[in-house]
Design goal:
- Keywords: Cytoplasm, Cytoskeleton, Repeat.
- It is found in: Cytoplasm, Cytoskeleton.
- Its main location: cytoplasm.
- InterPro entries: ARM-like (IPR011989), ARM-type_fold (IPR016024), HEAT_GCN1 (IPR057546), TOG (IPR034085).
- The protein has 17 helices and no strands.
- The protein is mainly alpha-helical and 395 residues long.
- Helix 7 runs antiparallel to helix 8, helix 13 packs antiparallel against helix 14 and helix 13 packs parallel to helix 15.
- The C terminus is likely disordered.
Length: 395
């Protein structure tokens, strides 16, 4: 089941997004049976047969529950579940009583980690944010990776990844081991191992997105860091899963822990540069119009980054979808949303110029004046930047 987002309008995108939040919530590795059979077989399954089976199941079971997709064998069932990687409706984010991004109770103490492993495998400058300031690092506190992970890259990657995925499926359990598994996956992600991604991409993505709801906020943040690295190194593989990945990344901006929000912001920024611009815009437009704060703010910021790399002709065609949400954001009660909306309009102007003006007829005089001020400021900044570049090139 794939989205033809290039030929869909906002309403169709909005309709296609509906209901998959329930699918993600219902998707859970309740037992190890799905992963007991070698995961490497996943890439050899008949994808066409899997899609056909899921299509018929979806038609008969609107709940999108597990019963609708379970097939004969464990791996066939898991392959079918990956076909549910459609995007949840932005309605799940809207409404005055939107649920908090806290599906589980948070503990006051967090698990410790192996600082050495983190430094060599994760974001060197960001590793400190996973530190528990209330506990001193000691021999007892250090995380010991399971023996199967210790040799890491010296063994066959496919076998190692299969073991890592089994460990990651222990949701809300074995926190230290799952942190170790995420660290090892970060190492593998930074290597050029196409065979691993050919076989395991869908399973890794499913587990990562489900891990974003983990009760341990350090694991949620690590999952987002890993997602960002995969986006950097394997962007083309997200084409059929862009909608879901965008939605889950934006939802993570509601997290109560700052390090998770920061990781979500970085992942969203990477998403904006990794997914095809038109596909991103068509997913983001209905979210901008319907989501509550802070998800609408995150969506507008991501949309701005996408627009900055958009071609003029295709952007002109998308304006009827983009502008209403930005004008709505310009009236938002949150000042940060209003400011982000203005910046996005400025980004549009920098791409299409005066062709933007006819779409702004609904703006009041004062708002138009403020927008023009920001446009001129951006032009001055760009002009100064260009002049500096010219001087540098001739010096």
């Amino acid at each position: 089941m794939e989205y033809d987002t290039e030929n869909m309008n906002s309403d169709e995108i909005y309709s296609s997004l509906r209901g998959v939040t329930e699918a993600i919530q219902s998707f859970s590795y309740r037992s190890q049976e799905d992963l007991n059979e070698p995961i490497r077989q996943e890439g050899k399954r008949d994808d066409a047969a899997g899609r056909e089976g899921v299509a018929s199941s979806l038609g008969s079971d609107p709940r999108l529950g597990l019963d609708a997709v379970e097939g004969g064998g464990g791996r066939t069932a898991l392959d079918n579940k990956t076909s549910l990687l459609n995007t949840p409706s932005p309605r799940s984010f809207s409404g005055p009583r939107g649920r908090e991004f806290a599906p589980y109770g948070y503990g006051e103490t967090i698990c410790s980690y192996d600082k050495t492993a983190m430094k060599e495998a994760v974001f060197d400058d960001d590793v400190e944010q996973f530190r528990d300031g209330r506990r001193q690092e000691s021999g007892e506190n250090k995380m010991t990776l399971p023996k199967v992970f210790a040799p890491a890259l010296s063994h066959d990657h496919s076998d190692l990844v299969a073991d890592l995925l089994k460990e990651l499926s222990n949701h809300n359990e074995r926190s230290e081991e799952r942190k170790g598994a995420l660290v090892e996956l970060l190492k593998i992600t930074r290597e050029d191992s196409l065979a691993v991604w050919d076989e395991h991409f869908k399973t890794i993505l499913l587990l990562l997105l489900e891990t974003l709801g983990d009760k341990d906020h350090t694991i949620r943040a690590l999952a987002l860091r890993l997602l960002k690295e995969i986006l950097r190194n394997q962007p083309a593989r997200f084409k059929n899963y862009a909608e879901l990945t965008i939605m889950k990344t934006l939802e993570a901006h509601k997290d109560s822990h700052k390090e998770v929000v920061r990781a979500a912001e970085e992942a969203a920024s990477t998403l904006a540069g990794s997914i095809h611009p038109e596909q991103c815009i068509k997913v983001l437009c209905p979210i901008v119009q319907t989501a509550d704060y802070p998800i609408n703010l995150a969506a507008i910021k991501m949309q701005t980054k996408v627009i900055e790399r958009h071609a003029k002709d295709s952007l002109l065609q998308l304006l009827p979808d983009i502008i209403p949400g930005l004008l709505q954001g310009y009236d938002n009660t949150e000042s940060s949303v209003r400011k982000a909306s203005v910046f996005c309009l400025v980004a549009i102007y920098s791409v299409i110029g005066e062709d933007l003006k006819p779409h702004l007829a609904l703006l009041t005089g004062s708002k138009m004046k403020l927008l023009n001020l920001y446009i001129k400021r951006a032009q001055t900044t760009n002009s100064n930047s260009s002049s500096s570049s010219d001087v540098s090139s001739h010096s």
